[in-house]
From TrEMBL:
<feature type="binding site">
    <location>
        <position position="269"/>
    </location>
    <ligand>
        <name>Mg(2+) 1</name>
    </ligand>
</feature>
<feature type="binding site">
    <location>
        <position position="199"/>
    </location>
    <ligand>
        <name>ATP</name>
    </ligand>
</feature>
<feature type="binding site">
    <location>
        <position position="16"/>
    </location>
    <ligand>
        <name>1D-myo-inositol 1,3,4-trisphosphate</name>
    </ligand>
</feature>
<dbReference type="GO" id="GO:0052726">
    <property type="term" value="F:inositol-1,3,4-trisphosphate 5-kinase activity"/>
</dbReference>
<feature type="domain" description="Inositol-tetrakisphosphate 1-kinase N-terminal">
    <location>
        <begin position="7"/>
        <end position="86"/>
    </location>
</feature>
<dbReference type="InterPro" id="IPR008656">
    <property type="entry name" value="Inositol_tetrakis-P_1-kinase"/>
</dbReference>
<keyword id="KW-0547">Nucleotide-binding</keyword>
<dbReference type="GO" id="GO:0005737">
    <property type="term" value="C:cytoplasm"/>
</dbReference>
<feature type="domain" description="Inositol 1,3,4-trisphosphate 5/6-kinase ATP-grasp">
    <location>
        <begin position="107"/>
        <end position="306"/>
    </location>
</feature>
<feature type="binding site">
    <location>
        <position position="141"/>
    </location>
    <ligand>
        <name>ATP</name>
    </ligand>
</feature>
<dbReference type="GO" id="GO:0032957">
    <property type="term" value="P:inositol trisphosphate metabolic process"/>
</dbReference>
<feature type="binding site">
    <location>
        <position position="284"/>
    </location>
    <ligand>
        <name>Mg(2+) 1</name>
    </ligand>
</feature>
<protein>
    <recommendedName>
        <fullName>Inositol-tetrakisphosphate 1-kinase</fullName>
        <ecNumber>2.7.1.134</ecNumber>
    </recommendedName>
</protein>
<comment type="similarity">
    <text>Belongs to the ITPK1 family.</text>
</comment>
<keyword id="KW-0067">ATP-binding</keyword>
<dbReference type="InterPro" id="IPR040464">
    <property type="entry name" value="InsP(3)kin_ATP-grasp"/>
</dbReference>
<feature type="binding site">
    <location>
        <position position="286"/>
    </location>
    <ligand>
        <name>1D-myo-inositol 1,3,4-trisphosphate</name>
    </ligand>
</feature>
Amino acid sequence: MAERRLRVGYALASKKQNSFIQDSLVTLAKSRGVDLVRVDTERSLLDQGPFDCVLHKLYGDDWKRQLRDFKAEYPNALILDSPEAIERLHNRISMLQAVSELTIEDRDETFGIPKQIVIYDSDTLFDRQAWETLKFPVIAKPLVADGSAKSHKMALVYNHDSLNKVKPPIVLQEFVNHGGVIFKVYVVGQYVKCVKRKSLPDVSEEKLAVSGDLLSFSQVSNLATNERIDEMYYKLMRLDNTAMPPLNFITEIARGLRDALKLNLFNFDVIRDSRNENRYLIVDINYFPGYAKMPGYETVLTDFFCDIMYMKRKEEVESPDEIDSSVITGMDSCQVMRKILTNTCGDEDDSSLQVSALSREEKESSLRV
């Protein structure tokens, strides 16, 4: 009998394709029975199937229609991820509302989001009473977060006088001192990995009193060389000495967000409040982030695809009891599923800690159409 392989069609913008579809990923996936096939965006998706799975990061009404037509033709195909679920992350207010839906009990650590408001017009922007609950400095972020260059244009605003340099609609998010470190948490299905990166330095009361301008930047965790504002600060900070968040705590948040957002592929940014070392704030959530920056991403994504293959094979048999025990433990001929699915939380050098694997019930519920 011919080997049953998994065909994953990927529909990505050229920049995303170049960063994500590396030879190392394609080769590893192929060796484990997963064929990554480029979707020609100039042609109808329906004409290019069948695919067992469509991996995408494209937007627009036409693309949504193509996905609906494809799903109607191939109802057993998996769409990663649902356009409707993805769209929730295109608005910086609705994306963080998911955090309020989470419940994590019996822990010393607490979590939430910074105070923030949305400003739709200039009149409200300069009306101090409209947002007097916020304290300076604030981060001004475009309301729309669709992955475009424009949506990444942000600014640290020190006082009211600098507000004339930002343009509504924007979200004003209270800046919280966090030791100049941001934790980026990558989620791939039930796999979770946390890394730490440099962030904006803390703002002292003295600096706030004398700062008369704003600081523009594109990404908090990836400031360009000409955007570095205090190199000595980073040298004194010693990123390597910064403690990671508790592993189980971050994993619980990741699982909760996965269920609330109904997404498999995303990351979220977390900071530790300098005023309370047990208080963590989620400041941003992104769909299908730059996984190639994540250590060992090829193995993580290939394992994820193999989990999908396992689920599809399970659907094809008459009864779950007929599945070979080697498949259940994750060691069939195509390495369909890892024997132990680990969640890791480590530094950029890929030092990591293991946590217990999810149960098979959790695994099966994590793959969403």
